[in-house]
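Let's practice the habit of predicting before peeking. Look at the sequence and jot down your guess about where helices and strands might fall. Then scroll down.
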Amino acid sequence: MTTLADPVPGGRPGDLERATALGGELAGRGVHGVVLAYVDTAGVTRVKTVPTAKLASAAAWGVGMSPVFDTFLADDSVVATDVLGSPDGDLRLYPDLDHLVALSGQPGWAWAPVDRITQEGTRHPGCARTALRRIVADAEQRHGITFRAGIEIEWAVGQGGAPDGEFVPAVTGPAYGATRQVELSDCAADLLAALAAQGVDVEQLHPEYAAGQFEVSVGALDPVAAADRSVLVRQTVRAVARRHGLKVSFSPAVTAGGVGNGGHIHLSAWRDGVNLHSGGAGRYGMTAAAESFVAGLLARLPALTAVTAPSPASYLRLQPSQWAGVFTAWGRETREAAVRVVTGTQGVRDQAANLEVKPVDLAANPYLALGCLIAAGLDGLTSSAALAEEITGDPARLDAAGAAARGVRRLPSSLAEAVAAFRADALLRSALGSVLADAVIAVREGEIAAVDGLDDEQVAAAYRWAY
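Done guessing? Here is the structure:
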């Protein structure tokens, strides 16, 4: 069954006329082509492009692309499920005209996220964007709950002329240091200008902890738009850096043994326009529903890591005492907890309060990650799950009794452990649907096999430039 948000062959009412007008407007601004983008199961952004003059045709009839990419690995090898992985068949990529934007970071190009449907006009069960939209719509229809989300983007900046495959930091200086900001001043200013021109409201841009690392935080949107924005921001960061002769990596572990790149997700639940994470009688102003939502997240975090930390390189980053959130724990402004309760500053808490989920990196397909987080939280909310005692400080320092009393467990320390937990979690697999859930398992198992026998540095090198 389709909804008004789903594309249909021939276009929805008004799509053809709107796309024709947009194409003419873009052409008048010197835009020659449109990037049609989606994220595959492995977390790699795949694209096709069309000339601007063909935008109306794409909006009406889509653009062909094989479903085999649902079971591609990060190295472009292919695995299979009982449904996916065959060279047979075709899908249609339909641009979402509401989120089409001219790329200031890539003059001459525009960009749009796509939904994928079958040639018969039905939803493709392997489309993660469509799955997230369905999960969000179901939450509103069944529970009267909407969501706002934002995804932090961390990346490492490397010298463009470094030997092939190697990473040489392009900037020096201490973590959060002014030296890095000065050394990357022109590139960072161009990035801010490009994002502003593309309608992305930036909260902050700053040097981060690891060598050559920066982070940008952006404003919150509905979950589908937030995932779209995450893809767009990374496209823009990469393009602007390239114009400055630099290379960027969003990989969870650019090198072994260091602090990796995260993709922390901020998420808040709302009912009737009221933020459930503020103004309640629970801890730090949480409502009972918000506390149960956190409990639902914590209960399923081991399985969730199969979608939020989906690469073998993810587990080089997920180490204790590195602010990666590797224990099933929560706390107010506790950056070692997997779920950080952010209350916001007095005076804006009704708008600012949210949850930060930390064991997430940018190898994750953002649509899959957000969909599964919402499904897990809603399960806790609907069952009125009790939220354990919070932690302060580093949960790695808790003794066995203290950890047990707070429900603190170590998250999977390998992708194989995460896949086993996901395979055993019927709720998450049901939320995605069997076709997409099976693709997640097959792709993760394929990545595990691809790095069998490699040491940590070799694993980091294998994924360094994939994301």
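How did you do? The chain is about 35% helix and 20% strand.
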